[in-house]
Amino acid sequence: MTTALWNDLAPAPRSAGWGAATHVAAGLWRIADPRGIVVGHIRATSSDGGWRYAAERFHAASGSFRRLGEFWSSSDAVECLRYAR
């Protein structure tokens, strides 16, 4: 039996058969490719129309995360991380 570390209402991202999502904070998942290399994060935010998923990638030069896009589907956000490499 697993216990959630955060009381999170946001549904976990669906990877559509590519990569793996690890829950790291409320509304935040780390996405790794099939080899286990971290490719970015998916951040879920609640909106009037439902959940929005933002694909984010770390930018070493600025030392911060950059938002690549915002999507209605978590699988679209994962695909954004996959192809924006």
Question: How would you sum up this structure, described in words?
Answer:
This protein has 85 residues and is mainly beta. It has one domain (20-83). Helices cover 12% and strands 46% of the residues. The protein has 1 helix and 5 strands. The protein has one helix spanning 74-83, and strands at residues 20-25, 28-32, 38-47, 50-59, 64-71. Strand 2 (28-32) and strand 3 (38-47) form a beta hairpin. The radius of gyration is 13 Å and the shape is globular. The protein starts with 19 loop residues before the first strand and ends with a helix.
Summed up, the domain count is 1
Helix content bin: 10-25%
Structural class: mainly beta
Low-confidence stretches: 1-5
CA-atom Rg in angstroms? 13 Å
How are the strands ordered across the major sheet? 1-2-3-4-5
Short structural summary:
This protein has one helix and five strands, in the order E-E-E-E-E-H. It is mainly beta.
